[in-house]
TrEMBL record:
Protein name in the entry: (2Fe-2S)-binding protein
Organism phylogeny: Bacteria, Pseudomonadati, Pseudomonadota, Alphaproteobacteria, Hyphomicrobiales
Entry keyword annotation includes Iron: yes
Domain 2Fe-2S ferredoxin-type: 5-81
Entry keyword annotation includes Iron-sulfur: yes
Originating organism: Ciceribacter naphthalenivorans
Length: 160
């Protein structure tokens, strides 16, 4: 006998439904049921940050969150960032070579989209502190920091 139940999730502004077991993780529903494969699964322990999505506009680890807990919450994935073009952060990541293999990039972008929204004029130290929650094996982090600082400046300029 299955414990699966039908749930309704709001993902990227769209209500979607999935039949899930209570133990199914949000990352798995996003990837397997909804085809939103930009949410990467790395460590499956919440350490690497590759699975970061926004839940009610706050960064959260999709590999640690049960899908059934997300009914009534707004989930935003990397697929919703930028719209038609690149977001200022995505553009800066490109220009500053803030990505190489790209595995960590969706989690980094989701983390900093929220951070820059709430902290429009960060210090490099603040950026490095926030970045400590995302593991990257390729870049050495310096280019990611440069990209975040560049994006922050561009976003401040756009606001004025």
């Amino acid at each position: 006998m299955s414990d699966a139940r039908l749930i309704y999730l709001t993902v990227n502004g769209e209500t979607r439904e999935a039949m899930v077991e209570p133990r199914k993780l949000l990352a798995d529903v996003l990837r397997e049921d909804f085809g939103l494969t930009g949410t990467h699964v790395g460590c499956e322990h919440g350490v690497c940050g590759a699975c970061t999505v926004l839940i009610d506009d706050q960064p959260a680890r999709a590999c640690l969150t049960y899908a059934v807990q997300m009914e009534g919450h707004e989930i935003t994935t990397i697929e919703a960032v930028g719209g038609i073009g690149l977001s200022p952060l995505q553009q800066a990541m490109h220009e500053e070579h803030g990505l190489q293999c790209g595995f960590c990039t969706p989690g980094v972008v989701m983390t900093f989209e929220a951070f820059l929204r709430d902290t429009p004029d960060p210090t490099e130290e603040e950026v490095r502190d926030v970045l400590s929650g995302n593991l990257c094996r390729c870049t050495g982090y310096q280019n990611i920091v440069a990209a975040v600082m560049k994006a922050a400046a561009a976003m401040r300029e756009d606001r004025s």
